[in-house]
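Minutes, structural biology subgroup

Action item carried over from last meeting: produce the structure token record for Plastocyanin-like domain-containing protein (Salix udensis). EB confirmed the sequence was re-checked against the source entry. Recorded below for completeness.
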Amino acid sequence: MNNVSFEAKPIDILQAYYRSINGVFDRDFPSEPPKYYNFTGNMTSIDVTSAKGTKVTMLNYGESVEIVFQGTNLLAEMNHPIHLHGFSFYLVGTGKGNFNNVTDPKSYNLIDPPEINTVALPKSGWAAIRFVADNPGVWFIHCHLERHSSWGMDTVLIVRNGKTRATSMRPPPASLPSCS
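Output recorded by EB:
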């Protein structure tokens, strides 16, 4: 995602975030691809080698979030079921070809968009989702095709605590055995 292939670490990100363990993840997931090209065109002459890393996106509690997923012709054009843990979201738009951030938002359904937790990213197309980051914690977002997830087609969103106890991440239960 955004030309970064996710690499899992031996320590899980939830534990690292909750316990403030440094060196497990980076907070610099790019907000857009490093370069733009015809994502749905012939990609044989373009170097699309992705960086590898454990990069997360940090969100403030209550922040309005829009994510646009762009399908590509990398390896093979196909649909991707993209799933976000911890949230339902609104599918505000889909389209064929490359997303245009000037013209495509004009066609968004902002009246009665479907509320879902998995979106079918169309083959050689795009899908735009919106949600409010109101569930503090560490949340995985990934392609539901397991092979793609194993290749790094996933990332993590961390929603920071709000200002009250009710809007903050709960501690693990005292009876929860630790992992070893």
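Discussion: The chain has a mean pLDDT of 82.
Next step: EB to file the record with the rest of the batch.
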